[in-house]
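Consider the following assembly input.
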Amino acid sequence: MTMKLPIYLDYSATCPVDPRVAAKMAEQLTMEGNFGNPASRSHLYGWKAEEAVENARQQVAELINADPREIVWTSGATESDNLAIKGAAHFYQGRGKHIITSKIEHKAVLDTCRQLEREGFEVTYLNPREDGIVTPQQVEEALREDTILVSLMHVNNEIGVINDIAAIGELCRSRKVIFHVDAAQSAGKLPIDLQEMKVDLMSFSAHKVYGPKGIGALYVRRKPRVRLEAQMHGGGHERGMRSGTLPTHQIVGMGEAFRIAKEEMVQEGERLVSLRNRFWDQIKDMEEVHINGSAEQRVPGNLNVSFAFVEGESLIMSLRDLAISSGSACTSASLEPSYVLRALGVNDELAHSSLRFSFGRFTSEQDVDTAATAVRKAVEKLRELSPLWDMYKDGVDLNKIEWAAH
Amino acid sequence: MAYSDKVIDHYEHPRNVGRMDDKADNVGTGMVGAPACGDVMRLQIQVNAEGVIEDAKFKTYGCGSAIASSSLLTEWVKGKTIDEAEQIKNTAIAEELALPPVKIHCSVLAEDAIKAAVRNIREKRGESVEAAGTQESAAG
């Protein structure tokens, strides 16, 4: 296969749809296909659509060893997070109004928590360790009598670090606190067994697993039963937890994507680890290059690296043949370095100098080699341009200089 | 973010990259910005006895617009007197490079850099320097 430029190394942002998934989706759209409304009970078109939806529900449930009746379709992980956190907080607020989360959660969790704060809830934002991990001990220390909900991500979207959700689940269960996990970045990449793990609510997204955008799911535990207050009202779909006509093609796509993930996860994980190592082996001998977050407790396809003394946005600009993202949010209008890296205690200068490389199903060894060569060249060029590099080479301690903030 | 052709040109072929001896009597150095903010510029000018800038060099840590702003500035100041150079406005830089609003601060930083460099050379020449500057030279 000829290489397509720019080389896509941003699988943590989104994945292309697997062609096998796209083929299934295409069968659910036209007059000749399975176009019916799954909620139509009075004719064959509806029954067939419902069958396809329930088959997909089964496929999603199988990847995470859950009961299909525990899967609620949503528009994506953001909606799942909203439904889980607001839904549980509103339902259980009679027990207490304290929620625990961490500072490095996805904005879908953080902004939802901020909203609940405005409604009178109290939220504790845990600071992860330097390696990006939130420990069960940290959660235990933050638990209070009035804590009703703990919400933590399984894998962080920027640094790929894995939390021990099994242990945190045990803790929450023993304290009768609802435990929500955002698994958008881990589903299909790490084993998840919800018969074993004491997780009450889990958010999923299809497009991080080679499915389509615009569809996700929320796992809602049946035993012991977890209750939610609906956030979307209407026809009472999804057992009243999320109204709205089910998009058969999207759902079938997510089901097929999760089926493939279950089948190929182990092999794919090994391949991605070897690609990541191959990439890292080609850049790690450069001076002042650091991995952000735990190198060991990390999802296979992710590498977040700081290249000291060069600025991330200009680095991306010189890597025009690579589709990557800056660990910092510099490409957005905010110009603020990544809040995730700051929470890890990474200094601002290094946070500005970081890039996230995420490898995936369609990444080749050739892609990785081309990327590594390009990165080395760009970093060397920009260091030649960097006054900070000069100072570092002269032995000046940059932390001792009083910079004028601007 | 879409960059203008001029930004890309300066970014890919930066003019006058380099470093001068900041201890030399005829060299003025302006170092502005902060690593924490994502950009640091070092602009140096070599000035003759008549106060004319004979040469200029820069190094910049920052985004493409910051690099382009400083590169452009070195082209503009060469041949100017320090009085003239001091008058260069960030708006002219922003306009020339077609910087988007979110990158205007890069041109501001470039203006600060030339002002700091001129202030530094004036001090070396024993000329009176206005106390109120936009920014102090952070390091030599």
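Residues 33 and 72 of chain B are 17 Å apart (CA to CA). Ask yourself how this observation constrains the way the partners meet.
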